[in-house]
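Sharing a chain and its predicted structure for anyone who wants a worked example. Both blocks are below, sequence first, tokens second.
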Amino acid sequence: MRLMVNHQTHYVYSDLVNSSIQYIKMTPSTNSHQCVKHWDVSVPGLREMKLDAFQNVWLTTTQRKPYWQMTIMAQGIVEMDQHQSDGVQDQLNPKLFLQPTQSTLCDSDMKSFADCYVPRVNRANLIHLSEAILQHIPYVPNQTSVHTSAIKAFKDRIGVCQDHSHVMIAMCKYLGVPARYVSGYLYIPQSTHLASHAWVEAFLDNKWYCFDVSNQLFTPQSHIYVAIGRDYWDVAPVRGVREQGGIESMSSIVQVLGC
């Protein structure tokens, strides 16, 4: 199955931006899930591409000319392997994904919740935990932000895929299971998916297994992998610094289509 992605992010500023540096992670890599047939990120300024500590493609761009607005466009075609074996392996040390982060801390209520659904660590029980997390935190858009921690999302009982992923990762790490945040895209047949997506991979029996809490999907046949990390901040599509610019407004459109 071939999928075409068009991801546009548009920034507008209330004052003139004199210069800026953007760190962009919007480029998928070929792996056991997918083969990248074509991909390009269109962005103004000088550019440098390298790999980060998690082997994600990391594009750094520098703008030295003043501007009022900027558009970043990522486009490409990815072929999915729908016959892949369950669970994958890579060269990254799983212990990297036991490291604590501010977004994936686990409080006493979350620990009790995890213990209730995972009396013994195995894939079936982690699927039950995933189901329970979605019941506890219904998917409601525009009520949280990238700064919402797992503890707050669990307490407020509201969130989106990013929050579901942070909570799942926090509980997995408490249980001693390495778990990582995955950013990318999800293809929904006969529909246009209008947002980028996030899910979790947990390390069991020397393999990484998919746990898409928001959609209750546990095989990544329709998931395009872009970047992996310990939490959202390791894989944020765009981060940067700028000189002046006043108030920033951002809008984004994502299309994932079969081709």
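Comments welcome. The mean pLDDT is 93.
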